[in-house]
Amino acid sequence: MKKLTETKTFQGFRKMYHVLAASLFPLAYLYPPFNLSLNDVHHWLLVVSGSCFAVSFIFDLLRLKNHQFNSQFMQFFSAFIRRTEVDKFNGSTFLCLAFFAVILLFPRPVAIAAMFFLSLGDAAAELSGKNFGRIRIFQKSLEGSLGFFFVAFVTAWVLFFDWRVAFLGGVAAALVELFSFELDDNLTVPLGSATALWLVVTLLHWGVSV
Fold first, then answer.
1. Which domain holds residue 39?
2. Separation in Å, CA 197 to CA 106, 126, 141, 157
3. Within a domain: 210
4. What's the pTM value of the predicted model, to 2 decimals?
5. Is 155 within 8 Å of 177 (Cβ atoms)?
6. Fewest C-beta atoms under 10 Å: which of 61, 76, 202, 205?
């Protein structure tokens, strides 16, 4: 029982950290801090996300090439990194790369939505799947996907005030998360959902600008 409790505590702490850390980028883009202009906050978010990716990428390369350093690194950051990432790039590296890409390539509302889809939707999918998951779809559950869709739908509705954009964007994001398979969803969800959402707002002639 103690081991199970410790595991749940670890997973809960890691997920809380993931939600809070990943939400800082879209929140800063949505509500620019320090009276920054939209152009300035766009620039600084690119600098920060790009720098975080570079640092995380270098650390991943170093630890994957050095077994001793990898063991020490994983032990020191055990509260933040999945144990399954011991022999591959960690999720933070993919997340920073994806956030840099969506901020660089997509209009502001689309980028904000895509980043929130990951930070909030991924947590909703995990909570729904672990607590209510009964119907398996590939390696995941229908209930987890529905939890992801609900959060994505509400997020897109708040940002775009258009149920069509919210519904189609939420469906697309949930499908990307479901079919990520071997690819890290920290990379696929922001990029895939941003692409789908951009196509939706373009096809519906919904005016979006950076």
1. 2-203
2. 10, 22, 23, 12
3. no
4. 0.85
5. no
6. 205
pLDDT-derived band at 12 (thresholds 50, 70, 90) equals low
In a domain, 142, yes or no: yes
Q: How far apart are CA 113 and CA 125, in angstroms?
A: 16
Angle, helix 2-30 to helix 91-105, in steps of 10 degrees: 20
Please report how many Cα atoms fall inside a 13 Å half-sphere around the Cα of residue 101, on the Cβ side: 18
pLDDT for position 122: 83
User: What mean pLDDT is reported for the chain?
Assistant: 84
Distance CA 38, CA 61 (A): 34
Give the span between the Cα atoms of 176 and 189, in whole angstroms. Answer: 6
Angle at 175 between CA 94 and CA 27, to 5 degrees: 50
Scanning 31-137, the segments in alpha helix (DSSP H) are 38-65, 67-76, 91-105, 108-116, 122-132
Structure tokens at 143: 């209930």
> What would the pLDDT profile of 77-108 be if each residue is shown by its tens digit?
666 666 666 677 888 899 999 999 999 999 99
User: How many structural domains are present in the chain?
Assistant: 1
- Are residues 66 and 123 in contact, defined by beta-carbon separation less than 8 angstroms? no
* Cβ neighbour number for residue 185 with a 10 Å cutoff: 24
Residue 79 resides in a domain: yes
Mean pLDDT lowest among 12-26, 52-66, 73-87, 160-174: 73-87
Residue 153 in domain: yes
